[in-house]
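User: I've been going back and forth on whether these two constructs are worth ordering. Before I decide, could you fold them both?

Assistant: Sure. I'll take them in the order you sent them. The first construct and its structure tokens:
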Amino acid sequence: MIAAFETRLPKPWLAVGHSMGGCLTALVLARGEHRFAGAVLSAPMLGLQTAPTPPAVTRVLAQTLTLIGAGGASTPGSDAASFESNILTHDPRRYARNVGQIAAYPDLALGPPTWSWLAFAFAAIAELQRGPGVPKVDIPVTIVAAGEDRIIDNAGTRLVPAASLKAATSKPRARSTSAAGDRPDPRGVLARVRRAAGQIAPA
């Protein structure tokens, strides 16, 4: 897509990714993508909360089910039947708006995570945590985490800045910030994402 529109997109380019999109953005940068001037990752999936099952056990289960052809099955506990049971937002108006949008446009609904999706997520996280690519990222990277995230393990969100800061001192500073009291709905951390983007690429 970048190659198709590169000549028509004014620079500097800023990569912005939320949740799994943030993980994929980090992965692309770690694998050598160099056309962006900076990146802002909103609640990026750089760690997973899997309680009460330990992450290592969940990872093996996801890998096994994927290998035996059952990766398309949905993971348990994926659906929230009410505002009180949802883990994406603590704002009832935002929750009602999301429900209303899906009711009006069912095609926008996202299905629950599958075991193969989860296996990929664990593999991507492992590559970012232990692979050689992250310390080579030489652009400013800001991570905005949701302080009350119950899906993403925020301990993992500190790995990208930590790895970047261990790299050559001539490289731009990577940093992580937490939006206290927010859950991973992208609108909940939007103001911090905008501020971070403005610092990297001022209008």
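The second construct, handled the same way:
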Amino acid sequence: MKKITLLLIPIIGILLFSGCAGPKAGGSTESSDMSDMPDWCEASGMKRDGYYYACAFAKKKNPSLSRSIASTRSRAELATAVETDVRQLIQDFLEESGVDDESEVSEYAVAVAQTVTSSITSMSTIDNQKFGEDGVYYVLIKLDMNQVSKETANAVKKNKALYDKLQAMGKINEMNQIIMDQNK
């Protein structure tokens, strides 16, 4: 019995390790050398010409699934960039305006940023797309920065506590101006 156990342990170990080295479950073929990546995709995560840009890619056996996954990833990247920018804009303004309570500043900034992010992803559009020769689907999504500014101003107005605080400080017009100037 001892000999069988000693013999089975290495065999089970080999089977476990060889099982881990096989192809990924679910038919994913994400590995790619990216030699076919378009130039416009390398400039992802940038702001230029009044737009936010985000690029993503996917390689699946089903081309429709590749397209859907790449678009979703690109929009998620875009949403992250916008949320970070809006949160920082609001936070900087409130701190410079004399709001001393750090938790209050953070709470307002996060609330506005999340409101903006949830509404803007549907406003983004595909700027460029390509199926590479290696089967990878690339997509570049863009979002007009003016839309982000408008949504940020609307989110500030909807956040009654923040809006009332800015109004009481006489800073609402200044805040709106900074929001509109963020994309210049």
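Notes on the second construct follow. Confidence is low (pLDDT under 50) at residues 15-29. The chain has one domain: 26-181.
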